[in-house]
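G., the chain you wanted modeled:
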Amino acid sequence: MGCEYKTQVKLDYIQDFEMMFERMKVHRPREAAVYYATLVVDCPKEFSEFLKVAEDLANITRRPLETGRASLLKSGLIAKVLFSNETDEDFGRESYLPVHPRTIWEDVKSDLKQVVVEDTYKIIENRIKEYGDFYTQNFEKYGIKLKRNGNVTLQYSGKWILYNMLNNCLEKNNGLKIQVGGERFFNEPFLKYFKKFLDLDAKVKLIVENTDKMDLIKELKKLYGDNLEIRYFKEEVSGTMRNFVYGKEIAVNGIKILPEAHDEPSYIGTAYVNLKDIEVLDERFNNLWQIAKPWGESNIKKEVAKKNN
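Predicted structure as tokens:
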């Protein structure tokens, strides 16, 4: 006879995240909150363990819980682990990586404050550290369960990677290097999260392969000055490749899943924490940086004019 599964999840935790997910317009917020809270607090390795918590605390059955999980994946609040290499970490059969609870709070706190009483707001705010302690205990410093060895390959959305990088930026104010296509990066909600990096006084180097957002780039440069360096290619040179290098902490090398209209999650990538791996990706980024064109209004206007002719 197997041991009965014991959870550390409380109904209060589920209710906190349900309120936050409602403000974020996450589909099926209660079911999503049950799955997310259980993942962060208990980090079960089997779906049956998630289901036990859901049934006991919220009277939620298998199908709605699966819907909640799918909603989290689409909303960029969890990433799916496909496989791992060079690590002894057991990810289990039910293997997902959540974003840090603090990044959810940072995203929603202003909106939430307008709709809940002050006492409720303070209670949730005070519990964020508790959730963060659970998160670090289960998913380690960089949010991918690894310390300094191995790598993990994931299926994730554009929001998940930005949430993850934002959390690392909140932990340490290291420089961030980003290579993107640019087709959606300057649209909401991605732009909102990108601005959060810059608001933290982080140094960002950005390579884009699209000059369609020239006016917006000009506005960002005015706002953030030397904290934001942008270079560009006049035409695509790396296809669907997307890279993020955050200091010497973590690097993610990914590809965009085609077609462009594909629903989220729309990326597959490998996250690295080994210093040698990070150095390799950092060098690749620097090589691209050297051959990319420096951002300048006159340069981009010329390229746009050529494209229109």
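The chain has eleven helices and ten strands.

Shout if anything looks off.
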